[in-house]
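Could you help me review a protein record that somebody else here produced? This is what I was given.
***
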Amino acid sequence: MLKKLEIQGYKSIKNLSIELKNINILIGANGAGKSNLISFFKLLRWSLQNPGQMQLFVAQSGGANSFLFDGSEVTSQIKAELSFEINSGRNDYFMRLFHAASDTLIFAEEKYRFSSSDRDSLADWISLDSGHRESRLIERADRGDKTAIVILSLIQKDCVVYQFHNTSDTARIKRRWNIDDNKYLKEDAANLAPFLLRLREYEPKYYLRIVATIRQIAPFFADFVLEPVGNSVILQWREYNTDLIFGSHQASDGTLRTLSLIALLLQPENQLPDVIILDEPELGLHPYAINILAELMQSISHSTQIILATQSTTLIDCFEPEDIIVVERRERESLFHRLDSQKLQEWLEDYLLSELWQKNVIGGRPSK
């Protein structure tokens, strides 16, 4: 589990220190900073992609200036520290990124440590020095450093941002995909067809559960048609009472997102990422589908941590107050605070969480 997160100087997040739980639902007005927090994890994962992809990601995202709180004239660096709790103890990773020439970011400081659960105090940091353009944690992992390998895996493979928003004609989910690229569902569900094909062949119990859940939301759905052509396969399915086969180009945006979300959440528990990060997964979904989505997230939250940004009143009513983190924008800064059910006890006797949000009792409404 990602136990604690500290960020300074990133986009609208001037200073954040927050304890995270199994379920973390971010709510707030448009522009409050929810998606900025989600995007931080994208920067983090790209920073630790072997053999080093941070410079590419920064350049493609508009340059370093766009990552810094109020720009480089106000903020010269980004600091971040993550604390992961594992069975044997605690892994910490710290990075300080400095604005450099050509509007890019370089590592001004990078360090990591592992503190065993039987220690009375935290272990000393292992410094990776400064001035490098790509993470040196990758180098340490390649040399066999066990702690570096674990932290790299926790961030790179087990802390995944999923966003299924792109359902345009050129979306990757609508293309044929390599049949062997099927172990993990990609962040945009591009390999959904080979992913489902693998489950059908090797994990049939989970495949059938995915199909049954889709039928709850879309009763016309019969089954997927996953027929490889050469070394590739494309997403298709059949519906009841017809012999026609339908393809992804004929599906609504909401249908494609529903298929992707259900496949993600209902894959075998031992294959789920340790941390699933979602940005507004409710887009295009019927309220009933949103309720199903919430039930699935609750069912896997004992083994997988959820971090989710949403605008859906239907969705937040499916969770407890302590699961909700309210994000508000005060002047130029995003502020984050977790709800407390005891403080809201009297209100909750008469109102739903969504109603308290709409009444601005818990915050998260537009403000100057």
